[in-house]
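Predict structure. Chain length: 319.
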Amino acid sequence: MAAASLTRRAVLTGLGASVLPHVGTAQEVRWSNGSEKPRFVPPAGAVDCHFHTYDKNYPIVKGATLLPDDALPEDYRALQRRIGTMRGVIIQPSTYGTDNRLQIASRQALGAENFRVVAVVLEDISDADLRRLDEQGVRGVRFNLGFPGVLTLDSLKLLAPRLANLGWHCQINMRPKQIEDNADLLVALPGRLVFDHLAQIPQPAGLESAPYKIIRGLLDRGKTWVKLSGPYVSSKQGAPDYADAGAVAAAYVKAAPERLVWGSDWPHPSEPKERKPDDARLFDLFAQCAGDDVAFKRILVDNPAELYGFPKVVPKVVP
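Prediction complete.
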């Protein structure tokens, strides 16, 4: 994800004290290549705003296309120790449909105060059930429209006003063509929108593509957020640097650093077992795109606190 315009020296100079290397032994993490800690040290209270858990003891929804092996809360805790984040947002994967029990249980296992959940619900869910999910740490609903699932564009229209009234957001995962075809709808939706994985801006068109211009317009309107996550979803240049996706990330940072968050996308369910990325390297590439100390902290701490309602008190170090 490193942007070509940002040299390593410039990044290190700009980030100042935040760039001191981690001290400690290498940390093996399931579903992540490498074992070294990242060179860039996240600030206290840093949030990983996009990861999933998987457990074979929970039923898989009929028609699910992503069927990863178990990725449990204790496995994720190892990633936290390796990267240095303290808080997180657990995202309901398409694998489990509207059965959010695993992600809610994972929040409890990891420490409810410092974790939130983005759920998937039926479009006719009752107000009482929405309030119950709110009490369980849910702060948004994921519309994973690039995969077969229970929620559709019509569901998005129906649910967006209700979620906005709760103070929740609509988390959207769309293919580039879907963004183009539904630009007017996206502008008209009430409440906050959060786009997964750099909004899947297509390559090699990148910054010149119609989807990028649509997302930039939404950012400029002030109610849309983008996750700096999953560069492998759209990159054509690929590992290890995902430079084309990095140019998109850097452009977002320049345009609207106050409406970006970062996510690991662990355990990287769209990537095969033999090609899992190095999470420390991904974090360092994000840090380079952030470009300076102020944006680095804003994206990792301040923006997630606003979007997900984390307490202002910084948590203790990861156990």
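Summary: Residues 33 and 277 are 6 Å apart (CA to CA).
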